[in-house]
Amino acid sequence: MRYYNLKDPRAKVGFRDAVMRGISSDTGLFMPETIPVMEPQFFERLPELSLAEIAVEVGTRYVGNDIPPEEMERICAGAFDFPVIMREIDGRKQVLELFHGPTAAFKDFGARFLAGCFSYFASHDGMRTVVLVATSGDTGGAIASSFLGVEGVDVIILYPSGKVSVLQENQMTTLGQNITAIEVEGTFDDCQAMVKGTLTTMDTGNRIRLTSANSINIARLIPQSFYYYYAVGRAGGGKVISVPSGNFGNITAAAMAWQSGLDIDHLVAATNINKVVPEYLSSGVFTPASSLQTIASAMDVGNPGNFPRLTRLYDDDFRRITSAISGYWFNDGQIREHIRAEFERTGYILDPHGAVASLGLDGYLEEHPEKSGIFVETAHPGKFAGTVEPLIETDVEIPESLRGFPEGQKESVIMKSGSDQLADFLSHRYSTG
Ligand SMILES: *Cc1c(COP(=O)(O)O)cnc(C)c1O
Fold it and tell me: Which of 108, 152, 216, 340 would staple 122 via disulfide (CB 3.0–4.6 Å)?
């Protein structure tokens, strides 16, 4: 399998280089040359396969010879050692719960697979790897927990000061060891621009290797397709799948699974008021905007990084894109009302992100009464108890995995927004200047 640069299709690399560079030198994203088509026998066996088994079979097609089969089995067994749960909401609606991992959000899937790949590659060339991550909240915690103690790898997390929850901040700032948190005086988009800017312009010589662990890294994207096989294997084919979308990695991974032969009927891209993609899907015009703050904060993205990958899967053909994907967006008031109403109607407790996906699915199913679907729940409602509890007037359980984080031992570096600031920090720390 080869990966090409979206901005320069002639520049091709193998899986290892695509993963270790994270993003290519002119900020183009790496994209698999072809989406591997899975055999009919694989789909026949699908209902019996565990997530880790699916990961090995599908993942191997993307990884090629860059990771030996026995290592892939070890990486996948280690990364996907927590449950994925499907539940029936009503006759037409199922939920795919992706929040049973260590940080109670779906970012665990990508982060843990990526950590496995990094640790395998780093152990084979002895160069110190410095992983830069920009986060609006959930990514940072998932990356920190996945990379904690991984040898030869340092992680530097940038998050917008004051714009993440206390729980999310704890997950990033209290671990220590090889994890450093930087609090940026700016927005998530500023953090993302700092990572991109530094990766593309900073010369680190041969002392360290700088890379990223954002959803732009192909090794985070690929594992996010595995649970769609798992879900469709259990639920049966022909379903509409609604994905709560921010940077659009999760839905891109669903589209990749679909193109590999998985029986999906249609995709719904559900967002909050950061609605540039739903607007593109109705007008054909893509206009990036500044991100707006909402209660579904992990989706507060004004210029989704994976959007060019999503459209490329359909050869950037607007007709093909809109026949595969529909967009819906909802404001905080609608999200709150839906959390309240769905709890009253079904007893199911949604988090604000899953609520957006559930609303999007309802919107599409209303227009297509013969269809049924699955919506994706990306975070445990306990992570957003402050929002959810007043709406349902019931206590929300905080998942076990989140209770153990020490409080009051926060360590972070405060930084003004700008790639220069980050580059200065890195040259001091690693004496590269
Ligand atoms: C990151 C995140 C999303 C958005 O996923 P993308 O792949 O960026 O579209 C949705 N929900 C939660 C809880 C998240 O953390």
Answer: 152
Token pair for residue 244? 């709560």
CA distances from 424 to 54, 309, 372, 421 (A): 43, 31, 53, 5
Going by CATH, does the domain composed of 84-105+220-399 fall within 3.40.50.300? no
Q: For residue 105, which atom of ligand 1 is closest to its CA? A: 13
Q: What is the mean pLDDT of residues 137-165?
A: 90
Reading the block at residue 262, the tokens are 């998985």
Which residue's CA is the nearest one to ligand 1's atom 14? 298
**Predicted local distance difference test score (pLDDT) of residue 399:** 85
Between CA 304 and CA 176 the distance in angstroms is: 30
Structural domain boundaries in the chain: 84-105+220-399
Atom of ligand 1 nearest to the CA of 107: 15
Which pLDDT tens digit goes with each residue over 332-346?
999 999 999 999 999
- Please give the Cα distance from 303 to 298 (Å, whole number): 13
* CA of residue 378 to ligand 1 center, whole Å: 7
- Write down the H helix ranges in 314-418: 318-324, 332-346, 352-367, 385-392, 400-403
> Ligand 1 site: residues with CB under 6 angstroms?
105, 107, 138, 215, 244-250, 298-299, 353, 378-379
pLDDT per position as a tens digit, 91-103:
999 999 999 999 8
| Through-space distance between the first and last CA atoms of the chain, rounded to whole angstroms | 36
Give the Å distance between the CA of 377 and the centre of ligand 1.
10
Query: What single string gives the DSSP state of each residue in 17-65?
Result: HHHHHSS-TTSPPEEESSPPPPPHHHHHHGGG--HHHHHHHHHHHHHGG
Q: How far is CA 348 from the centre of its chain?
A: 24
Mean pLDDT of the chain: 92
